[in-house]
Design a protein that fits this description.
Elements (H helix, E strand, L loop, with lengths): L1 E5 L2 E4 L4 E8 L3 E11 L6 E7 L4 E3 L7 E6 L4 E6 L8 E13 L2 E8 L3 E6 L1
Parallel strand pairs: 2-11
Antiparallel strand pairs: 1-3, 3-8, 4-5, 4-9, 5-6, 7-8, 9-10, 9-11
């Protein structure tokens, strides 16, 4: 299962961006989608997760500014980021885990996208 992230770019502080992440492949059941980010010189950290049922979880510092959502029909998730700050500058990675169904049965998958760079200028 491959994930393709897009939507990153350069934005001024206070601005907004919406990231997208699409999963390729058919016969998928995604149990958890997520976004993580890695700033220069720092470890990768959780941004937000969303489950198949729609339950969401956010990093405490991002609540109220970031919203994660999904479109099951398009096998795509989104991250709406508002009131961006220079500290939000990072490479944002999407993530998905679940099951892929084929003639050989059910197989677990755990995939990461390639990352999309978000740069917030002050």
């Amino acid at each position: 299962v491959q994930l393709q992230a897009s939507g990153g770019g350069l934005v001024q502080a206070g601005g907004s961006l919406r990231l997208s992440c699409a999963a390729s492949g058919s016969s998928l059941t995604v149990a958890v989608w997520g976004w993580h980010r890695q700033a220069p010189g720092k470890q990768r950290e959780l941004v937000a997760h969303i489950t198949a049922s729609g339950s969401t979880n956010y990093a405490d510092s991002l609540k109220g500014r970031f919203i994660i959502s999904k479109d099951n029909a398009k096998s795509t998730i989104y991250l709406q980021m508002d009131n961006l700050k220079p500290d939000d500058t990072a490479v944002y990675y999407c993530y998905a885990e679940g099951f892929h169904y084929s003639a050989n049965g059910r197989k677990y998958f755990n995939s990461w996208g390639q990352g999309t760079l978000v740069t917030v200028s002050s």
